[in-house]
Design brief:
The chain is mainly alpha-helical. The protein folds into two domains: 213 residues, HUPs (Rossmann fold, 3-Layer(aba) Sandwich); 81 residues, Tyrosyl-Transfer RNA Synthetase (Orthogonal Bundle). The chain is built from 13 helices and five strands. β2, α2 and β3 form a beta-alpha-beta unit. The chain is elongated, with a radius of gyration of 22 Å. The structure holds tryptophan. The site of tryptophan (TRP) has 12 residues, from β1 and α7.
Length: 330
């Protein structure tokens, strides 16, 4: 069975875009592949969170992914820093990563531009740590967005380089996992573009009904259609795109008809959309709260995840040490 792996940023709170995008596919995939999902809490130190924020964020994203349907019994759900083998393999891989190639990475160059007074070495070697995450479980497939494609390319490069240097065929070269038509793209409600945390237009699964309603009622619209079946402007098309996934077919058809006959009132459209998003997210939000307040359950899940992840990682580290030439003297 092929192995699939994905890293979750510790500040990666789930919004509708993630929920209908990657996460729904993760939930399906857990049964067809050997899946590893982990919170990338070592990577997050490149931006210096406070200890309280770090701990709270990790707990929150774990609760959100479980509430969204990741089953910690089926998949391996773990915290990166719970697996010391990751740090060890990272050190070894760093020896075969060149400063020049790391400096040329797009994500690094972007950080140099956006935070010139905090260009730490962790940022430079971020792709090495990410490669470690992936190859330590010999993952074959990694679901990545556009922004992470180059990092995955670097992973293949490091894996291939290790195999070449030591004349082994040890690490598989991981491929991007393409969801193809299964990947529903959720737009933002601010007129153009996709929904995203960095875009600042996210409707989060953990948002209260109040907040969701406020966010939806602020959605950008236009002056309204003036002739039947007028082509929709992007902001209106975006509202309908979200409605298509969260509302019933009848409701969607009703508003489409209202639009096509120029009778639509955007306020009613938004009210309906808000109501349907709240209906969809309420049980998930309640489940998130339930999980994150159950310290004992979280503790059990994290421990189980760490044990499963370490079993896999320590096997790899053992092999790698042997390949490199660290052989036991005692
Ligand atoms: N870099 C990824 C992000 O910013 C998170 C991540 C860390 C990751 N390690 C990974 C993703 C390994 C996939 C595989 O979203």
């Amino acid at each position: 069975m092929e192995t699939v792996l994905s890293g979750i940023r510790s500040t990666g709170n789930l919004h509708l875009g993630n929920y209908f995008g990657a996460v729904r596919n993760f939930v399906k995939m857990q049964h067809d592949y050997k899946c590893f999902f982990f919170v990338a809490d070592l990577h997050s130190l490149t931006t210096y969170p406070t200890p309280e924020d770090l701990h709270g964020n990790i707990k929150q994203v774990l609760a959100e992914y479980i509430a969204a349907g990741i089953d910690p019994e089926t998949a391996t759900l773990y915290i990166q820093s719970d697996v010391p083998e990751v740090s060890q393999l990272y050190l070894l891989l760093n020896m075969n990563a060149y400063v020049g190639e790391l400096e040329r990475t797009t994500t690094f160059k972007e950080k140099v531009r956006s935070q010139p007074d905090n260009v730490n070495a962790g940022l430079l070697t971020y792709p090495v740590l990410m490669a470690t995450d992936i190859i330590i479980h010999k993952a074959n497939k990694v679901p990545v967005g556009k922004d992470q494609e180059q990092n995955l390319e670097m992973t293949r490069k490091f894996a291939r380089r290790f195999n070449t240097i030591y004349k082994v065929d040890y690490f598989p070269l991981p491929e991007p996992f393409n969801f193809g038509r299964d990947l529903i793209k959720i737009p933002g409600l601010d007129g153009t573009g996709k929904m995203g945390k960095t875009e600042g237009n996210g409707i989060f699964l953990a948002d209260s009904p109040d907040i969701i309603t406020k966010k939806v009622m602020r959605a950008v619209t236009d002056a309204g259609p003036t002739k039947p079946k007028q082509k929709m402007s992007e902001p209106i098309r975006n509202i309908f795109t979200i409605m298509e996934v969260v509302s019933s077919q009848d409701i969607f058809n009703y508003f489409l008809e209202q639009y096509n006959t120029c009778k639509i009132r955007y306020n009613d459209l938004k009210k309906q959309l808000a109501e349907d998003i709240v209906r969809l997210t309420t049980p998930i939000r309640e489940r998130i709260l339930e999980i994150s307040s159950d310290e004992e359950y979280i503790g059990r899940v994290v421990k189980m995840g760490a044990e499963k992840a370490r079993a896999s990682a320590s096997q790899t580290l053992h092999d790698v040490r042997e390949i490199i030439g660290y052989r036991p003297f005692y």
